Sequence to fold (324 residues):
Amino acid sequence: MNWAYPLGWPEVVAIGLVVVLYTGFVLRTRRLAAPFGQRGWRLAWKLPLRLAYFALLLIALLGPAYGTTKQAVRTAGKDVWLLVDLSRSMDASDVAPTRLQKARAELSRLVSRFQADRIGLIVFSNSAFVQCPLTYDQGALQLFLSTLQTNLVPGGSTDLAPALQLALRRFTANPRTQGTPPRALTLVLVSDGEDFGENLEPVLRELARTGVHLFTVGVGTVEGSRIPREGGGFVRDAKGRDAVTQLQPTVLRRLATQAEGQYFELSDQRNEFPQLVNALNRVEGKAEQVRTVSVADNRYRYPLLLALALMMLDVIVTVRVIRP
Fold:
């Protein structure tokens, strides 16, 4: 047996009021009956009756639940792919503790805000991989986010195009059933913006054609930072100097502008993830889906009906307390 609502202070106050008021009623009746030499004891048999239906009303209010039932729930949601840059530059510490760790924490909070939507995870550097397919399973997605490291993908320079192309292929892999409204398709690209790939024009045209919303998040600072290397030290450039990675917002702004989205930044001084959450909320889900969920079977009707029957009995059966 489970309860839909716990016993709280309103119920405790109600119990106290009933006890006080009924005690006052009994004392008043005895006081009025005393001048006639009567004691008002005929009310005694109604006391258990009234206590019984009051207790049943209280039980119905708390919502006794026994067993589970299957219910169909209609949801209007959207599909969101998180595209996370795992190139070595994301280990830079110009955003504490590192760019990737800061982005990972913010993405975890973002995911928890969209439990009615399907969310997937793609990781990339110079190539892209599906880390978690589109899912409603928040626990699984949070687990994948918590394990993101730059060594999950082959090392190399960053290329944004493969991640965007992979997300588009995933969107079109499962064609919708005829007569079913299209789902709202959304991408969230998290990167420092350093793109060493080829021309992005083909993928931009494809984004515009499919109507995908692309939101980009630039992680880092324009001052930049050195890139730590496994085993100690820092990554060096072709001239033997420490390589410095800097936030490159221009390409990320261009992507967002041409794909019906917005650009946001994440650093120690600037955290625009709350604005990203608001922007995602404004993208309306276009498809109604029917999901079957198990819910506790609330059986409040039975104590409520029994309480009403006892109340009717209390009203119908009258007792003359004071006889002339």
About this structure: Residues 66 and 235 are 62 Å apart (CA to CA). The chain is about 40% helix and 25% strand. The first strand starts at residue 2 and ends at 3. Residues 177-181 have pLDDT under 50 and may be disordered.
